[in-house]
Specification:
The protein is mostly beta strands. The chain contains six helices and 28 strands. The strands form eight sheets. Strands 21, 23, 26, 27 and 28 form a five-stranded mixed β-sheet that branches. A four-stranded antiparallel β-sheet has the order 3-5-8-7, with no helix packed on it. A four-stranded mixed β-sheet has the order 4-10-9-6, with no helix packed on it. The protein folds into five domains: 49 residues, no CATH class; 107 residues, Cadherins (Immunoglobulin-like, Sandwich); 98 residues, Immunoglobulin-like (Sandwich); 115 residues, Immunoglobulin-like; 99 residues, no CATH class.
């Protein structure tokens, strides 16, 4: 069994901000609360919920901030805060500037975490223009209770003092547009740029050209007054625009620099003569008709006059009465070249040159002489060009194109036959080559045999050692004919891979020592003819040593290393005879 009991508020005007929680002790008794009944107690916690019944309140009524004039935009200039005794959503506020910022120089935003109002710079400020600002800032609750006196809000005054800073010079314009005529003389004044120091000190300003934007140094600037002058002649046809950067620097503080762009337009003057649009080459048919248009010619001009181009064409004075060609103005800055007759023949003249003068409408007018080349060609009945060069020389002798091709083919065939004949004769006259060029080697042989000359000296052939047949073969002497036939012995080596030079020499030495047909050392030797023109004449190995000739052989010393040994032998012989 339970007895329902309701707890009611007995005191009006309870304030959560004063006391948020109440502890209530409740006692229950039976027997209607009479004496002798039993009782029990319990504790009830009563918590008051918050309502938005308190306005935000600034901690100060006046805030003062000092900010430098060079403070970048969107940077913080100061903070303000309005406190609210409520909690949760009821304590949140927004900030706004309600007075004192007619120019929109500042803005205030709310920090969601700290519920502070952050004052930021919206536009650049200038100490020289305005040194202080007074703003009225308001804080307003974002939520209010229906039927209450809200929304709740509070205001405060914010005073901002601008601090002077050293600022860079300021140009009168962010960008300058100047004009100058092409081919203007050097030192021509193109224009002037100006800059000033915005600080109250008013420092002097110096001007310079950023040479990275003027690599060819075509312009100069006066450092004191900013006058831009021409340093080199300009050509509009090369560059129509020149963009340079000018810097301004304070005299007292070179770190304070500002820049401005100067765009210079080169104005056109009539300094170029018109000329043909291309190198024209016209073709005229031999069977053409009088008055036929041979070529349409147009001209171009590098200049760009304001009134546009107009070209005048005429023949050179000495060609005014040209019997072959004339020109016609098409009224669109072009002309047509016409033929005057139909008797053009390549046999008579294959090419014509027509000089034409082209003049523009500039001030002063410019003109040039251009030559049109006209070739006389053979054409079909429909006027289609077939040939302009080759047939002009072939047709006079009555040859057709087919005959010309046949003649050329015969000439080519004849040339091929001649080349083959010369090639075969050359191969036939070439000597047979027994050994490769690599097997032909020079060798130096030392010998002490007096007599003999250069023409009958047979040097030792090194190829003998390389020829397998020479290992086992027998070489008979050429100076005598042996009485007994000597049978050579078989060699011990049977192939080229077994060649041993040392053993080969020993075998040959043994055969020479045991050769019964070998002549004695004092036998008479017969040598071949010594050669013509020899100063020493023909010599014999026997009569040389016993000769009593008074011949002087000192000249042998002058014949070089090859005759040095021979010279020493004869010199020694003469010295022995003298002693």
């Amino acid at each position: 069994m339970t007895v329902p009991t309701t707890i009611k508020v007995a005191l009006h005007g309870m304030d959560r901000e004063m006391r948020e929680e109440y502890l209530v002790v409740i006692q229950a008794k039976d027997m209607g609360g009479h004496m002798g009944g039993l009782s029990g107690t319990t504790t009830v916690t009563v918590t008051l919920t918050d309502i938005n019944d308190n306005p935000p309140k600034f901690s100060k009524s006046l805030y003062e901030f000092v900010i430098p004039e060079d403070l970048p935009t969107e940077k913080m200039g100061g903070k303000v805060k309005a406190n609210d005794r409520d909690i949760g959503e009821n304590s949140k506020s927004t900030y706004s500037i309600v007075e004192g910022d007619d120019q929109g120089m500042f803005e205030i935003i709310t920090d969601a975490q700290t519920q502070e109002g952050i004052l930021r710079l919206k536009k650049p400020i200038d100490y020289e223009s305005k040194r202080a600002y007074t703003l009225k800032v308001e804080a307003t609750n974002t939520r209010f209770e229906p039927g209450s006196n809200g929304p709740f809000k509070d205001t405060a005054t914010v005073k901002i003092v601008v601090e002077d800073s050293d600022e860079p010079p300021v140009f009168s314009k962010p960008m300058y547009f100047l004009e100058v005529n092409e081919n203007a003389p050097i030192n021509t004044v193109i224009g002037t740029v100006t800059a000033r120091d915005p600080d109250s000190s008013g420092s002097l300003v110096r001007y310079f050209i950023d040479r990275h934007t003027d690599l060819e140094r075509q312009f100069n600037i006066n450092v004191d007054d900013g006058k831009i002058t021409l340093a080199k002649p300009l050509d509009r046809e090369t560059d129509m625009w020149h963009n340079i950067t000018v810097t301004a620097t304070e005299v007292r503080n070179h770190s304070q620099i500002s820049r401005a762009i100067v765009a210079i337009r080169v104005m056109d003057i009539n300094d170029n003569a018109p000329e043909f649009a291309t190198e024209y080459e016209a073709f005229l048919c031999e069977n053409g008709k009088p008055g036929q248009v041979i070529q349409t010619v147009s001209a171009v001009d590098k200049d760009d006059p304001i009134q546009g181009h107009y070209f005048d064409y005429r023949l050179v004075p000495e060609m005014l009465n040209n019997p072959n060609f004339t020109i016609k103005n098409n009224q669109d800055n072009s002309i047509s070249v016409l033929a005057k007759h139909d008797t053009f023949r390549r046999q008579k003249q294959e090419m014509y040159f027509l000089p034409i003068i082209v003049t523009d409408n500039g001030n002063p007018p410019m003109s040039s002489t251009n030559t049109l080349t006209i070739r006389v060609c053979g054409c079909s009945k429909d006027g289609i060009v077939q040939s302009c060069n080759v047939e002009a020389y072939v047709l006079p002798i009555g040859l057709s194109m087919g005959a010309l091709i046949a003649i050329l083919a015969c000439i080519i065939l004849l040339l091929v036959i001649v080349v083959l004949f010369v090639t075969l004769r050359r191969h036939k006259n070439e000597p047979l080559i027994i050994k490769d060029d690599e097997d032909v080697r020079e060798n130096i042989i030392r010998y002490d045999d007096e007599g003999g000359g250069e023409e009958d000296t047979e040097a030792f052939d090194i190829a003998t050692l390389q020829n397998p047949d020479g290992i086992n073969g027998y070489l008979p002497r050429k100076d005598i004919k042996p009485d007994l036939q000597f049978m050579p012995r078989a060699g011990q080596h049977s192939g080229p891979n077994g060649v041993d030079v040392d053993e080969f020499i020993n075998v040959r030495l043994h055969e020479a020592d045991n050769d019964p047909t070998a002549p004695p050392y004092d036998s008479i030797q017969i040598y071949g003819y010594e050669g013509r023109g020899s100063i020493a004449g023909s010599l014999s190995s026997l009569e040389t040593a016993s000769s009593d000739s008074d011949q002087n052989y000192d000249y042998l010393r002058e014949w070089g290393p090859r005759f040095r040994r021979l010279g020493e032998l004869y010199s020694v012989g003469e010295s022995d005879r003298e002693t």
